[in-house]
Amino acid sequence: MLRHVPLLTLVVMLGPVVAGLWGTVLPAFGHLPGAGLTGPSLVAMRDLLDWPGLRQAVGLSVVPGLQATVLSLAIVVLVTAGWSGTRAFGVLQRLLAPILSVPHAAAAFGLAFLIAPSGWISRLFSPWLTGWGRPPDLLVLQDPAGLAMTLGLVAKEVPFLLLMTLAALGQVRQEQRLKTARTLGYDRVTGWLKTVFPAVYRQIRLPVYVVLAYSMSVVDVAMILGPTRPPSLSVQIVKWMGDPDLSLRLTAAAGAMLQLGLVVFALLLWRAGEALVARLGSRWIETGQRHFLDRQMRRAGIGLGTLAAGVVMLAMAGLLVWSFAGFWSFPAVLPDSFGLRSWTRHGPGTITALGETFLVAGLATVIALALVLGCLEAEQRTGRTITTRGLWLLYLPLLVPQTAFLPGLQILLLQAGADVGRLPVVFAHLVFVLPYVFLSLGDPWRAWDQRNAVVAATLGASPGRIFWRVRMPMLLRPILTAFAVGMAVSVGQYLPTLLIGGGRVATLTTEAVALASGGDRRAIGVYGIMQTLAALLPFALAIIVPTLVWRNRRGLHV
Amino acid sequence: MKYLSLAAALLMPFAASATPNPSDWEAVLQEAEGQTVYWNAWGGSTTTNDFIAWVGERVSEDHGVTLEHVKLTDTADAVTRVLSEKQAGEDTDGAIDLIWINGANFAAMKEAGLLFGPFAEDLPNWAYVDTEGKTVQTDFTVPVEAYESPWAMAQVVFMYDTADIAAPFGSMTGILEWSKANPGRFTYPQPPDFLGTTFLKQALVDLVEDPSVLSQPVEDATYEDVTAPLWAFLEELTPTLWREGRAYPQTGPAQLQLIADGEVDMAISFSPGEATAAIANYQLPDTVRTFVLDKGTIGNASFVAIPYNSGSAAGAMVVANFLMSPEAQLRAQDPEVLGYGTVLAMDKLPEADRAAFEALDLGIATLSPAELGKVQDEPHPSWMTRIAEDWAARYGTAQ
Amino acid sequence: MSDGLVLENVRITDGGATLIEVDCTVAPGEVLTIMGPSGVGKSTLLSFVTGTLDRVFRATGRVLLDGEDITGRPPHLRQVGILYQDDILFPHMSVGQNLAFGMAPGGNRADRRARIAQALSEIGLKGFEGRDPATLSGGQAARVQLLRVLLSEPKALLLDEAFSRLDTSRRAQIRELVFDMARARDLPVLMVTHDEDDARAAGGPVILLGE
């Protein structure tokens, strides 16, 4: 039984991706028998190429995607190089979990209010400094270059990459490397870049690719912050998918293939960039240069790191204020009055959506956790650890753009006559929840002192008894953390819920994004806050529960 | 007797799976009891969402029908859904039981045979509907033929902030002149958003010399001539728009936030009572009022339709019927709730209901039926499709 | 068939290269010491005996315990106990629960508790049942571990550098305790160490590796 769990996990995780891609390829080549269209033909491709917005939509996929990835990585590198081990870094580290759990959509709404010409920042300085009695007519949101979108992505991807980097730092023994470099006379940042970064980057390479693929194909953030004439390719794909004119589905499928191609292209480009940086880097190492703008880089690191964290926190504060706001006009920094009207109006609706959200997230995460524990235990018992290739498989669902396979998956599910609704959504979420749960639990699981198992076995404990009585309780904290990660990932899912749920599964995220189109900031505030709380609550439990259960066991305190 | 009940028991399953016959209302009510109706309706307006939730409570109380609001960002999503279900062979229990629909989406679904019916004129409350004065039997010039039932009247009005604009405008040209003098203070939702295309149609209706050509389908030969004034108007208007026309609000309600933030001073609405309701919800400043154009503005009815593959058609008809009831219509017209125009004829109503309608305070920003003036007919749907496409080619992508 | 622990022509290879080769017998009550610097595969040999050898190694030969071939048995059915240098007390269980976890099954609750209480007082830790293992001193933890192994009624005892973490004063004391109790139960003891004092104190045969 246990032996088959890894295979089962792979099928559950990659099956929908492969099926979805298959379901995309056929219509992309003009084959959609259900609509009376049989291929193969290049009609869909031609329609795609004839679409006047194509060039810009492609640009809006590639450029903000690369920008967001480069910027996020740079900020993470600078702040880690300059500050790891300091008190300031510790503060950032503590803010990490809550910021990470803020769903992308909620962060994007909050950010939109922050940076809009009529937004909070503008209000703070108006009219006393700017002289603006009315908001200036500036194209800050929905800008054609996608800068607002890039900013929104960076604010959310920095914490993700930072988390991955922190995990990597432990494995590469940063302290020793850095100490050696420092005793050789290297300045902090230069030393870190030359001795720690190459090893760390090897560890976080796949997460960086995930950030790149995600940023290039994101839908909810792009819908909220991105331009609309035209929108980015992925948003346009979703629009085509929703058009009553069926032939546009073929265009959507062709667009999905293009989106996949773009991501593959960008990944190759990135790899080439890696090689270039590696070559330049080793040349730089050979120069023996001890300092290079160290002080400036440290300042930039802490400045940008604080900014990234501050933006998300301010954005959330903005949502909170809006949810309690009475009438609130520009340039007032705070509303004319506060009240519970928005909460009494939308509160009941959010509770219903919260129930659905937790049901889907809970089911997906429990299944994911069971499969991951099964995999790790099987790995443990057979002694076969995951290979690099295995790790790639794990990351595959995160590297294939959602807009490339979810449309195809929806078409396939419909053709198979599978009932829409909660269960398919749970399995669609599982595709994304599984890798994160695996990545979250894998390291602490493997880092567990194996001799505990040997001792227990020599005391006569069977493998099952060791698993339940020794390993699970000792790893309660990481297991609950992995559970919280899974919940947060599921809570934040927009596209799988929308496309696979057929509209019947209304989670906080789908409700919030639907509301965003209406622009009612009070309602968005209520839903955004609830969405964030839904993602935060499991993390809080993951901290509180082990502390309560093991309050008399000092060996398990962190 | 024994045999009869046996026969009934044998027949039951067949009877239950047969299409409910709307003319046998008692049977419909019986079948509806316990059904769950998935109503796919646009979910971007919180006031509408609240109203739909209230409808759900009422039909559950009266008829044991559970109503689930599936919130859409675009009605076309629902149409697509039914289409894909038909292709997939899901003919008996589709995901959608009721759709808030009109115009092109209705035309598409009716033509493709995706709708259940005819049913609307068999509903008991049809007796109260104003079939003479309101456009409830054609939908954008397409004959309804009882495949959808009306529940609200909409008419274009313009909301404007009296703090910034002294007097309303009588024509599209007047709006253009003002926008040129006050650049950056006006915008409209980005087509193909429903309200955005409505703005284009309203402009077309107001600008063409003879609007009667618009009731006929588009003809390639005359299209350019007819629409030339519209494009000339937009060429002049666009550079004076909010963000110089480089960005647009994505939906109608998004304009409210722009007015509240002081980013724009005027916005189009398809609901005469929307401004009043939004003021009550703090979404608009209380200085906002509404106006219509001298030649009148476009109006149409909102309908609900039932997909052919709904598994709960009886329940859906119960909801559709309730929506046309004086009780629901009165509530929808209440500016504190929705402020939607009623589809009922006052002279067909019982005395008490008529009095209740008369007693309704429409609110500070809502025009009276007399002030709303002449309702212009919607152009044939082919105009909307064509204009939206053309708009997308001209303004839909940055140059 | 002879009693005690027999390693018969045991040879462990790592990718073709022989890591360690042993052919020896440990009689009941006897301590056999295997000495050598780190890296010669002493611990690997012990993991072969406990049945937890890492997959990267290949092993040939047999392990016999009291005449029975246990080479193919899973670890928990071998009845071979082990003590490590670090205290591997399960941190989520109290001292008493750790001992109960190790104690061979059987007997009612009260009976088992009484046996644990008595065993604890015999090694000078009376009343320690409820203690959190993380609060024990090094010497106390070592004694609890020893007790836990013995309560599981093994037929052989393995010591993997078991005393190297203890400070010198404790070390001799704990070592004596382990050897005494093993002898009292007639257990064959296989000890790997790099410390000559350990070997001397054991008083048994010594195999030197890696010279």
Low-confidence stretches of chain B: 1-18
Q: Count the strands of chain C?
A: 9
Structural class of chain B, by secondary structure, is alpha/beta
Rg from Cα of chain B: 22 Å
Shape, principal axes of CA atoms of chain B: globular
Question: What is the CATH top level name of the largest domain in chain B?
Answer: Alpha Beta
**Element string of chain C (H = helix, E = strand):** EEEHEEEHHHEHEHE
How many strand elements of chain B? Answer: 11
The number of distinct helices of chain B, counting runs of at least 4 residues, comes to: 15
Instruction: Please identify which CATH superfamily of the largest domain in chain B we are dealing with.
Output: Periplasmic binding protein-like II
The name CATH uses for the topology of the largest domain in chain B is D-Maltodextrin-Binding Protein, domain 2
Gap from first CA to last CA of chain B: 80 Å
Radius of gyration of chain C, in angstroms, nearest whole number: 17 Å
What would the keywords be for this entry?
heterotrimer, A: 558 residues, MetI-like fold, globular, C: 211 residues, alpha/beta, Rossmann fold, five-stranded parallel beta sheet, 9 strands, 26% strand, YnjB (chain B), ABC transporter substrate-binding protein (chain B), SBP (chain B)
Structure characterization notes:
The complex is a heterotrimer of chains A (558), B (399) and C (211). Chain A is mainly alpha-helical and 558 residues long. Chain A folds into 2 domains: 1-27 and 340-558, MetI-like (MetI-like fold, Orthogonal Bundle); 51-321, MetI-like (MetI-like fold, Orthogonal Bundle), CATH 1.10.3720. Chain A has helices at 5-28, 43-50, 54-83, 87-101, 104-115, 120-124, 147-172, 174-183, 188-217, 220-225, 233-241, 247-287, 294-323, 341-382, 388-399, 402-415, 422-447, 451-458, 463-474, 476-492, 495-501, 508-516, 521-549. Chain A starts with a helix and ends in a 9-residue tail after the last helix. Chain B has helices at residues 2-17, 25-32, 46-63, 75-88, 104-111, 172-181, 194-207, 220-237, 252-260, 274-280, 313-323, 326-333, 351-359, 369-372, 381-395; strands spanning 36-42, 66-72, 98-101, 138-139, 142-143, 148-155, 157-161, 266-269, 288-291, 297-305, 375-376. The longest helix of chain B is centred in the first third of the chain and has 18 residues, at 46-63. With 399 residues, chain B is α/β, with parallel strands linked by helices. Chain B has 2 domains: 20-150 and 301-362, D-Maltodextrin-Binding Protein, domain 2, CATH 3.40.190; 157-299 and 374-395, 3-Layer(aba) Sandwich (D-Maltodextrin-Binding Protein, domain 2), CATH 3.40.190. With 211 residues, chain C is α/β, with parallel strands linked by helices. Helix content of chain C is 33%, strand content 26%. Chain C has 6 helices and 9 strands, in the order βββαβββαααβαβαβ. In chain C, helix 2 (95-102) packs parallel to helix 4 and helix 4 packs parallel to helix 5. Chains A and B meet through helix 14, helix 16, helix 22 and helix 23 of A and helix 3, strand 2, helix 4, helix 5 and helix 9 of B.
